[in-house]
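Try this one yourself first.
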């Protein structure tokens, strides 16, 4: 991948240990390393216990009903 090619990374965060992990936004970057840097500097308004980036193309749909949680192949 060249530095010109950008991809979207979702940014998830957890404020304190035990808190839910929530989607707080996204960043566009050519590499995961730059995406991590962009996420850390873009969403630095608070101290996070955990900050995670996920390549938006790596998403796996999940279906939840009353009795089952099913991971569906993308």
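Now uncover the answer:
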């Amino acid at each position: 991948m060249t530095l010109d090619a950008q991809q979207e990374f979702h940014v998830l965060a957890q404020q304190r240990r035990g808190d839910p992990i929530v989607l707080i936004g996204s960043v566009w970057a050519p590499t995961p390393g730059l995406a991590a840097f962009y996420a850390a500097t873009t969403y630095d308004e608070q101290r996070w216990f955990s900050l995670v980036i996920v390549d938006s193309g790596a998403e796996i749909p999940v279906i939840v009903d009353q009795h089952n949680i099913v991971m569906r192949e993308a």
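Discussion: The radius of gyration is 15 Å. Residues 7-71 form one domain.
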